[in-house]
Automatic annotation (TrEMBL):
Protein name as annotated: 1,4-dihydroxy-6-naphtoate synthase
Biased composition (Polar residues): 1-22
SUPFAM superfamilies: Periplasmic binding protein-like II
Keywords per UniProt: Lyase, Menaquinone biosynthesis
Record-annotated active site: H163
Gene source species: Hydrogenimonas cancrithermarum
Name of the coding gene: mqnD_1
Record pathway: Quinol/quinone metabolism; menaquinone biosynthesis
Function as written in the Swiss-Prot or TrEMBL entry: Catalyzes the conversion of cyclic dehypoxanthine futalosine (cyclic DHFL) into 1,4-dihydroxy-6-naphthoate, a step in the biosynthesis of menaquinone (MK, vitamin K2).
Lineage, highest ranks first: Bacteria, Pseudomonadati, Campylobacterota, Epsilonproteobacteria, Campylobacterales
PANTHER family per the UniProt record, alphabetical: 1,4-DIHYDROXY-6-NAPHTOATE SYNTHASE (PTHR37167:SF1)
Key word Metal-binding present: no
Family: Belongs to the MqnA/MqnD family. MqnD subfamily.
């Protein structure tokens, strides 16, 4: 059950039917925080208590490989490597539509073919696309919050900015190339850029997995519907790293109507990403995203 009018003082544990908790891991960037906190503030009931943890995306990617959490945010480029252990969720997704991570460098600097670059993690989508476009670049991996500083201090020649960093960086830096442009060239047509989503451990019983995904879909929908109130609450509690105008701009990009549940165009883009990864030797086989999603029709067949 969802409260029709969430209240600012409605911060409570969601009611649930069982006491065995589900761990939900997400990144601390504004869109993940925003999409999850309708649950945290008690606006959406859940089939079990949800225990959340916030970690940077590459730490979450590594944790997914290790099978650490029940539900976790991941970079979409990682998914084919964990498909046997995790189902791909339809909700809390982030796609770029004409935008995305940016390769930045000092203004006027000419990059050599083997330039040194800082990326946010080897399993991220931007890292895979970057490595395809710049096979001779020398890569170092850093927490995404440290990349701009590494470029400014000359530790690296360039860096790929992600999350809120793409909206505001030092005026002495300039964009060398948009990852969006690399994606369009590789995709061969205009498709949204698949960046990140959620995955759920296959060891969770199917009926419970369906209930968990439905609760998360509802949470993202409620968060989007009550965006103004939720954003205000997050800002007042210092739960996001950015100010109100930047948060509004960022949510326009990555937490919007298209984050609630993947549509056909997003699924096509995801399949294209997986095919590109296979063609360039990142995966052992190409996969189709829908084949690895939770079959909600199971409940309909069971109850018919």
């Amino acid at each position: 059950m969802v409260n029709s009018q969430p209240q600012e003082d409605s911060i409570q544990s969601p009611k649930s039917r069982t006491q065995n908790p589900i761990t939900i891991a997400h990144s601390p960037d504004a869109d993940d925080i925003f999409m999850y906190y309708a649950v945290k503030f008690g606006w959406v009931s859940t089939p079990a208590p949800f225990e959340n943890i916030a970690l940077d995306i590459e730490t979450l990617n590594e944790a997914a490989i290790a099978g650490t959490y029940d539900v976790t945010a991941i970079s979409f480029a990682l998914y084919p490597k964990i498909r046997d252990d995790f189902a791909l969720l339809r909700t809390a997704v982030s796609f770029g539509e004409g935008y995305g991570p940016k390769l930045i460098k000092p203004k006027g600097k000419r990059l050599r073919r083997n330039f040194k670059v800082a990326l946010s993690g080897r399993h991220t989508t931007n890292a895979m696309l970057f490595r395809i476009a710049y096979p001779e670049a020398r890569i170092v991996y850093k927490n995404f919050l440290e990349i701009e500083k590494a470029v400014l201090e000359g530790e690296v020649d360039a860096g790929v900015l992600i999350h809120e960093s793409i909206l505001d960086f030092d005026e002495s830096l300039e964009v060398e190339r948009e990852i969006w442009d690399i994606w369009q060239e590789l995709a061969g047509k205009t498709l949204p850029l698949p960046l990140g989503g959620m995955a759920l451990r296959r060891s969770i019983p199917l009926t419970r997995a369906i209930a968990v995904e439905k609760a998360l879909i509802k949470a993202v929908d409620v968060a989007n519907t009550h965006r103004g109130l939720l954003a205000k609450m997050l800002l007042e509690r210092d739960l996001v790293r950015i100010d109100a105008p930047t948060l509004d701009r960022y949510l326009d990009l990555y937490a919007n109507d298209k984050s609630v549940t993947m549509d056909e165009t997003q699924l096509e883009a995801l399949d294209r990403l997986f095919r590109i990864g296979y063609d360039h030797g990142f995966y052992e086989c190409p996969i189709h995203a829908e084949d690895f999603m939770i079959p909600h029709e199971y409940l309909e067949a069971r109850n018919s």
